[in-house]
Fold this protein.
Amino acid sequence: MKVDSMNDQPLGLNPQSNHYPMIDILRGFAAFTVIVYHVIEHISWKSFPLKGIVGDWFQIGWMSVDMFFVTSGFVIVLSTVKSFKRTDSVRDFQKGYIRRRLTRIIPLHFLTCVIYLIFVSPEMLFMPRIGYHLISHVFFFHNWHPATIGSINGPNWSLGVEIQFYLIVMLAAGWLSQVRPWVLVMTCSLISWAWRASAYAIFHDQIRFGSNLTWVYTSQVFGMLDLFTWGGALALLIANDTTGKTQMWLNRWWIWPCISLAAAIPIMKIYWSNASYWNIPAMVIFWRTSEGFLWACLLATACGLGSGRISRISLPFRYFGTISYGLYLWHIPVLFSLKRTYIVNKPESFLAWTLFLTFLCASASWHLFEKPLMEKYQKRIHPS
């Protein structure tokens, strides 16, 4: 078997493995971008010091959530297809699938919601219809109503979308194990286009509870399926790679940044030429599909880099990906708490403290809370 000299490993990872460690770089970068973007937005930082491409990227940091969705589509579909093929009973597959997903998502979601309600916004506990807000967040349908989509720790609206996507994948596991990648992309793109077109026609230019209804309803799971399934299509190529040809092409890792750059130039040029995004139907309906392709190319780059020398060198950066879920859920409680202090008038210091304290919270919750719970679950399923 040939060996990739850059990564010191055979071309092609273990076919039973679902883990591509360099994906953690993308997760960490996306989480960092979201934090900076929200700092800029929440303190109205008009004079953000970084200019050019880097500065522009942080001004549109919401796209990092789309990157998360593409990455989730890859990880979940790859894991699901392989698990489904290995499991004899559909019921056993679904039982294990639900336990794994909920063990990973629910504990930190509940913890950060409780922290937010007690220490960041305790007045919410006495507001009318607080029970509906709590129930919607417990059962992950808070993203469907403009009053609840951002009411308790705003960024977790995307968890509702993620959980609903997980449910769709579980129910469609048999189909996913047989469908061709291009059929998956086309089917889900058509669904997303139809959904976003309908949402735009019904809700355009309407505001309720401070939320843009076009954004609220185009951002539901059916409006995001094209993003998820770009990652899912890449997962299918890998899961069905019986000859090793797909991994061979992925290991030519230098090709994918070139494709990403070639795709990024026209895709981002279209965006900047139509930056009033939510008022342009063609952008709302179609543009995100091309954006998903761009993130899928970067994902392919991460898969091609493998788990060898580059992976070991990048270990400190990959750690940010390991705790990215915590970074994502902790940063708003930290940011809102810091807004009550004097450093809110010092944007650079405010950003530094937000990043530092969010990192501490995410790291602590990973090592003391999330990881022990996951290990306990694994021991229960696979006792020694």
